[in-house]
Amino acid sequence: MRNNSSVFQFGLISDIHKDVIHDADGRLRTFIQSAQTNQVDFILQMGDFCIPIPENLPFLDIWYQFEGPKYHVLGNHDMDGDGHQKPDGAYAFTPEETMTFWGMPTRYYAFDHAGVHFIILDGNDKPVDPSGYYEYIAPDQIDWLKSDLTNTDLPVIIFCHQNLARQDGLVNQPEVHAVFDGFNKQVGKSKIIACFTGHDHRDYVRQLDGIIYAQINSASYHWLGGDYICQRYSQKIDVQYPYIKYTLPYRNALYAIVTVNMAERFIKIEGIESEFVGPPPWELDDTPKNLDTESLNPAISGWQLSF
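User: That's the sequence. What structure does it adopt?
Assistant: Structure tokens below.
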């Protein structure tokens, strides 16, 4: 905890994927230890954490070793069954089942800390025409967001699992941006100062219409898919974790310590740098070489951005 009330820190981790990567427990433990060492004010995980099965209770126990406030964001994979959705596009678990398992009060919510209002959104609403994983914020949640923004006079930081700074993000991303932009124009300043997202397993920060959009890389890997299958661990691990061969793992856990300085009006992101386990996809033989490598990086880069 810092003596200066205008400065505070929180620990941020995203996309650990306990049910895909074999060493998720160790990655989470590293993050918790760092959060404790840095004496952050709170921690937050940004989704794709773990599905609600008894085998994942020891993983949750690691999370609860942090003694301060802890917050969750729902990711699309947190309702998976065997790693995939049901054929009709529905999830194997309900959001309520996952939330109960985690101890998460509601799908979307808000809290205040050190003179800042934090909003947690759920990008897993079912769209009108679903295709693949749901990436949508429904009208009732949009109405709640507008009401919540109206009822706070504090500067706002927003978290959502699905990205809000790329065209392949939420399907109604323009509608959400319009809400953000509308409130900033209404008050004549940056009421909404930043939006943190996960999901992409990439490393970038963008500023759009005066708002910082920080993409927090996965703690564990980048998903490559069937065109880039490569055994990067032992046969035993591959058998136990069958989806790991479709990934490009990071050797060490990625996470960030975020400093918010309200007096000097900047956000500082201190991330972790790692390396790929095994060859990157562009070094593999007999595989397509058309992978989008923009922001494909085994790191969460350090940034200091003014607002």
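The chain has one domain: 7-306.
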